[in-house]
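Email to the structure team, subject: RBM45 protein model.

Hi all, the expression group asked for a predicted structure before they design truncation constructs. Nothing fancy, just the tokens so they can compare against earlier work. One-line instruction: predict RBM45 protein, return tokens.
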Amino acid sequence: VFIAQSRASGSHRDVEDEELTRIFVMIPKSYTEEDLREKFKMYGDIEYCSIIKNHTTRESKGLGYVRYLKPSQAARAIEECDRNYRAILAEPKNKSSESFEQDYFSNNMRQDLRGNTLQFCGQPECYIYEKNESRIQESVSRRLSVVSRLPFIQEQLFALFDLVPGLEYCDVQRDAHTNSGYAVIQYSTAASAIYARYKLHGFEYPPGNRLTVIFLEDGSDSSE
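Reply from the structure team: attached below.
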């Protein structure tokens, strides 16, 4: 990896400080800053590590920053670290961190759903579903129920499930007595619903909030 510097970008040290030495990674929620440092110290001299936490609960969001002394060390970490860390160069500090985190999750979600596996790294050990190893033990249909402890936003949930081809409708229902979320999702085929069920059940959306996705009877012959 070779990182070029624009002639108009100012002093070399300014560029290093703001753009080229800080990486952003996805980590198990059990990681401490010491664990993060231990995993990434082999790639170079680390200036600091930080874990991103929920402002209210102070629990880890499963994300962290690692700041190196040299851009070459950050580049080496991105190239050589385990792919499960999803390491990328961090945005400059003057950009909203929440916006950056949301973009990061959205991009990774799209990449995962286009591949064969979706890796859930919210737990200390990544849990992987593979299409060719899935065993359907329950009655299936084209319709899914989605439950969350946080309320849903119609547009966001539609965009999430629309990543799986064949989405027909997404109906978000609100309970005036609780703050939980509930929605009904329907696809054009049972195959799409099965794929969405095994990809998105247990997925954290938004980060820190796990979705529960189950099949709903839709009157069709599940044996198909």
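The chain is about 30% helix and 25% strand. Residues 115-136 have pLDDT under 50 and may be disordered. Ping us if the truncation boundaries need rechecking.
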